[in-house]
Design brief:
Layout: E1 6-11, E2 14-19, E3 27-30, E4 36-37, E5 44-56, E6 59-66, E7 71-77, E8 91-96, E9 101-104
């Protein structure tokens, strides 16, 4: 559980919660391994369509196309095995926690 400050910022894809205080414009970076398909990754959520899934040894990388045409990549560890997931073309949700956001100066 995070006990610090949570701020909400407005981005091109909507409002998202980030850890820490914000004192002006920022860029938000997200590592693919910190994102999750489905609602279980945290309070931040984006809806999209699964465009592709690529197997790469110990990981499966999903490409999700958002409504504005941009793409987000989600990397899933296969440490616990490969389970059935959404098919290409299906609607999916990408989720992540505020602590997964990396804030950078513009």
């Amino acid at each position: 559980v995070f006990a610090g400050v949570i701020s909400v910022i407005i981005t091109l894809v909507g409002a998202i919660a980030v850890a820490g205080g914000i004192a002006g414009p920022v860029l938000v970076a997200l590592r693919p391994e910190r994102l999750r398909l489905g609602d279980g990754g945290g309070v931040n959520r984006l809806a999209g369509i699964l465009a592709a899934s690529v197997y790469a040894g110990e990981t499966l990388t999903h490409t999700v196309r958002l409504a504005n045409g941009s793409e987000v990549r989600v990397t899933q560890s296969l440490h616990d095995g490969l389970s059935a997931g959404p098919a290409r073309g299906e609607a999916v949700t990408v989720s992540w926690s505020p602590q997964a956001c990396i804030l950078l100066p513009p």
